[in-house]
């Protein structure tokens, strides 16, 4: 490979994961040129610069000195639209006024404060658990919880599409790890049947809603299998909290499994309009995790602003079920309209606020993503290593705050570009003059 002239059309991110040269920095140079070429072709749609809050309409700076793009936002996981609610912003201001910008300390030292403790109690009640603890990020919650509990003699069983934080938590723990076929209880059972008795403890980890596919875990069956073989169960509710269940409790609540799942884990960066993470469970187990989770012990406490935002957002979720109703109205409308136009969607019926349009080819995805961007629609394009090779896709996140006008404009853009690139065979607007791309 000529490092100084890498044609991005001929490579993917998978090609730069490793290189044979002994210098561990050597692989950085070809990737640098790959990304540079990718950017030069205007198809690199990552790290776009927002000049406004991540609401349903955003201003984005393409390049310095260029006019701002005013775009429909369908990439943020702001499922209930709470990040700009006046109540949330006021709570943030009040918390900073009272506690300052940071406690500048780890929780075990001088980083535990009243508002943080109140949030932990509120989360425990919300998840029907005895106790909860808060981490500075959702990633740290998974890494810390798994590595605190699992030892070299233990076995952790994870879904093949497990989030990177789950995989990294297992690596840090140094435990035995087995992955079962995606969302397949029978595959999990085969692994548990074959488990050697030398494994002292078994932990099954699944996501209530899988982040890159948007499908729900087959939780009742998975919980049943785990219990038959004496395994503990952890459910990551990152994308289920606020979205699923009668009160927004997530997949565990949706399937009426309170009391049957050992640990419920989640993040603040989706429906809770903040940054942070948590795990909830029995009082004794949470106490153990507090004292052994390295990502908790050796990190600064979450900021008062983040804690206040999450606390207030959780209150709004409890008080305003209409937000969830509106979200699901939008999800069903948008998913149904895309399906009617012939898009290849996964899952085929809506199971969460995530809509996935499967593209497959990295090269085609780059072209489509840029055209969507130029039509002023902001969606995520996902490639390896976030998903498997040749599984590239558009990942759309819907919000309760999206208006019907937002949804219809996005549908027009996606349909026109989809027909153009034969991702769909036809759409309701065959005439390019009707497309916002040509407006």
Q: Which strand order does the major sheet show?
A: 4-10-9-8-7-5-6
Spatial extent as radius of gyration: 22 Å
User: Average pLDDT value?
Assistant: 94
CATH architecture of the largest domain: 3-Layer(aba) Sandwich
Distance between the termini: 42 Å
**What is the assembly state of the chains in this entry?**
single chain
Gross morphology = globular
Q: How many domains is the backbone divided into?
A: 3
Number of strands: 15
CATH superfamily of the largest domain: Type I PLP-dependent aspartate aminotransferase-like (Major domain)
Fraction of residues in helix: 25-40%
Uncertain residue ranges = 430-439
Q: Approximately how much beta-strand content do the residues carry?
A: 15-25%
Biggest sheet descriptor: 7 strands, mixed
What is the top-level CATH class of the largest domain?
Alpha Beta
What's the number of helices? 14
**SSE pattern, N- to C-terminal:** HEEEHHEHEHEHEHEHEEHHHHEEHEEEH
Alpha-beta content class: alpha/beta
Do you know the CATH topology of the largest domain? Aspartate Aminotransferase, domain 2
Q: Could you explain the architecture of this structure?
A:
The model is unreliable at 430-439 (pLDDT under 50). The chain has three domains: 1-41, no CATH class; 42-73 and 322-438, Aspartate Aminotransferase, domain 1; 86-319, Aspartate Aminotransferase, domain 2 (3-Layer(aba) Sandwich). The protein is an alpha/beta fold. The strands form three sheets. Strands 4-10-9-8-7-5-6 form a seven-stranded mixed β-sheet, sandwiched between helices. Strands 1-2-3-13 form a four-stranded mixed β-sheet. Strands 11-12-15-14 form a four-stranded antiparallel β-sheet, with helices on one face. The relative contact order is 0.14. It is built from 14 helices and 15 strands.
């Amino acid at each position: 490979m000529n490092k100084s002239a890498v044609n991005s059309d001929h490579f993917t991110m998978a090609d730069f994961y490793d290189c044979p040269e002994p210098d561990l920095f050597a692989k950085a140079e070809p990737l640098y040129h790959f990304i540079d070429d990718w950017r030069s072709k205007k198809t690199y749609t990552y790290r776009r610069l927002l000049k406004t809050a991540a609401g349903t309409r955003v201003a984005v700076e393409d390049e310095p000195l260029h006019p701002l793009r005013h775009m429909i936002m369908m990439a943020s996981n702001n499922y209930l639209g709470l990040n700009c609610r006046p109540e949330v912003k006021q709570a943030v201001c009040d918390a900073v006024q009272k506690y300052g910008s940071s406690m500048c300390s780890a929780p075990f030292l001088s980083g535990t404060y009243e508002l943080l403790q109140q949030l932990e109690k509120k989360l425990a009640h919300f998840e029907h658990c005895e106790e909860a603890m808060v981490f500075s990020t959702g990633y740290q919650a998974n890494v810390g919880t798994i590595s605190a509990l699992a030892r070299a003699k233990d076995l952790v069983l994870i879904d093949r599409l497990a989030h990177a934080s789950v995989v990294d938590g297992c690596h840090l723990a140094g435990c035995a790890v087995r992955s079962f076929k995606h969302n397949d209880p029978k595959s999990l059972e085969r692994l548990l049947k074959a488990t050697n008795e030398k494994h002292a403890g078994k932990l099954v980890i699944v996501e209530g809603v899988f982040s890159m596919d948007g499908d729900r875990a087959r939780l009742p069956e998975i919980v049943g299998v785990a219990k038959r073989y004496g395994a503990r169960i952890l459910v990551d509710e990152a994308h289920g909290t606020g979205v699923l269940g009668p009160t927004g409790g997530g997949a565990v609540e949706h399937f009426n499994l309170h009391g049957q799942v050992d640990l419920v884990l989640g993040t603040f960066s989706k429906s809770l309009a903040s940054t942070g993470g948590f795990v909830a469970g029995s009082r004794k187990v949470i106490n153990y995790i507090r004292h052994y989770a390295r990502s908790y012990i050796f990190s600064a406490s979450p900021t008062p602003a983040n804690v206040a935002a999450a606390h207030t957002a959780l209150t709004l979720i409890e008080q305003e079920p209409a937000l969830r109703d509106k979200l699901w109205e939008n999800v069903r409308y948008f998913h149904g309209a895309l399906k009617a136009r012939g898009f290849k969607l996964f899952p085929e019926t809506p199971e969460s606020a995530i809509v996935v349009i499967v593209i497959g080819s990295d090269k085609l995805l780059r072209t489509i993503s840029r055209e969507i961007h130029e039509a002023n629609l902001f969606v995520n394009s996902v490639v390896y290593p976030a998903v498997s090779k040749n599984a590239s896709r558009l990942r759309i996140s819907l919000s309760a705050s999206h208006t019907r006008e937002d949804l219809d404009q996005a549908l027009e853009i996606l349909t026109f570009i989809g027909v153009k690139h034969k991702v769909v065979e036809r759409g309701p607007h065959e005439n390019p003059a009707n497309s916002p791309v040509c407006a």
